[in-house]
Amino acid sequence: MRNPLSLIALLLxxxxxxxxxxxTDPGQIKLGELDxxxxxxxxxxxxxxxxxxxxxxxxxxxxxxMSETESDTFGIGAARRWIKRELDRYSMQSGSxxxxxxxxxxxxxxxxxxxTVNIVNIVATLPGxxxxxxxxxxxxxxxxxxxxxxxxxxxxxxxxxxxxxxTAAVMELARVMSIYSFPATLVFMAVAGEEQGLxxxxxxxxxxxxGSKHIAGMIxxxxxxNPESENGTLSAPNLVRLFARGVPADGVLGLETVRYLQIGGxxxxxxxxxxxxxxxxxxxxxxxMEVKLIYRTDRYMRGGDHQAFLEQGVPAVRFSxxxxxxxxxxxxVRETDGVRYGDRAEYIxxxxxxxxxxxxxxxxxxxxxxxxxxxxxxxxxxELENDTRLRWSDSESDNLAGYEVLWRETxxxxxxxxxxxxxxxxxxxxxxxxxNWLFGVRSVSVGGHVGVPVFPMPFRE
Length: 461
Prior knowledge:
Layout: H1 7-14, H2 36-44, H3 47-58, H4 76-93, E1 99-107, E2 117-126, E3 135-142, H5 160-177, E4 185-191, H6 199-210, E5 214-221, E6 239-243, H7 255-262, H8 270-285, E7 290-294, H9 306-310, E8 316-321, E9 334-336, E10 339-341, H10 350-369, E11 375-380, E12 388-393, E13 400-409, E14 417-420, E15 426-429, E16 437-445, E17 457-459
Parallel strand pairs: 3-4, 3-5, 5-8, 6-7, 11-17
Antiparallel strand pairs: 1-2, 2-4, 6-8, 9-10, 11-12, 12-15, 13-14, 13-16
């Protein structure tokens, strides 16, 4: 646990990142190397800055969706205005390239909302630098909190881990990343109404996908600040879970899903491809951290804002610590029989939170600097043969260096083999039977940034 920040440290943090927009030349990086700017960004992520953000959010008492909105020191209104001011400050540091806005709507009463309430998300957008790249990558945390009773809008609900930790991580990502450039667009979002039924995320995701936005991937960070379980009996300081859904749990499977199932591709649908890429890339940048893939939408009896994006067909995943301390989640602040309850800031491990934030940063920066994916990726099933013949259409990205063909055993969760094939749009793997392996094709930038692989669908000539 770190000591409280001194006045000098607070002043230093206030001016941290106050530098000009950094021009980027991705062509100076060789294939296969780590991006030095991504390493530079990770160094700029500060555990002290994360601590300051969480302690500020906790000091608003409660951030319940239906709590006080007029006070400047208590309730969700004060919290969202502070988040907006901080993001506005980061916008100034970025030369106003980072645009910050409230996304507001009136929510009618539901089982968890007794009266009409104004739901407010704070959305910070860093536009991509490539006019031909319409991809958007979203990262979120929810800033609302709750006590034991989901409807209690007045009791203290500090919400340090659930989910000031995710909100602080997203704000820190915006602070650090907004002075750099990326071909694709990044959206940093602090969401409200999660505890009342994913309200803020669901409305934004619906509006975004029904409009002109092409959301290529979404990450939510929810409960990422403490690697220990109750009483410290379990600890995983170098692990973080990444939840990734496979087959949609819909009543009627769509044609695309059926095609995946027919050829054994249930673990190669877009969300798991996204998760696999996040794990591969982030672990290459953070050798001390392991991303543990969990092939489920979320934990039993729980949910998160990524589900609102999954409902819209967007590849979306959730980061969460490996073990949870349930005495510190959704609990009134109290002490009973010597046991302390409540989601307090004192239980946050800020060094662990920094490492999880680093994981997010390296994955997002790589994705936003990767080329657009290849289209029409197919596997030739015309002949009975022991070779595998793949083809695809060009990604039409200016920063494209070429493509990688990936393959793994059908029982492996991660890619075991890869081969860079240059700018070719077809490739034959000799003596690698299409019947025995799973395949993918992904774009690679001149800077070595890898895109999300595309699973090949069968075709006949």
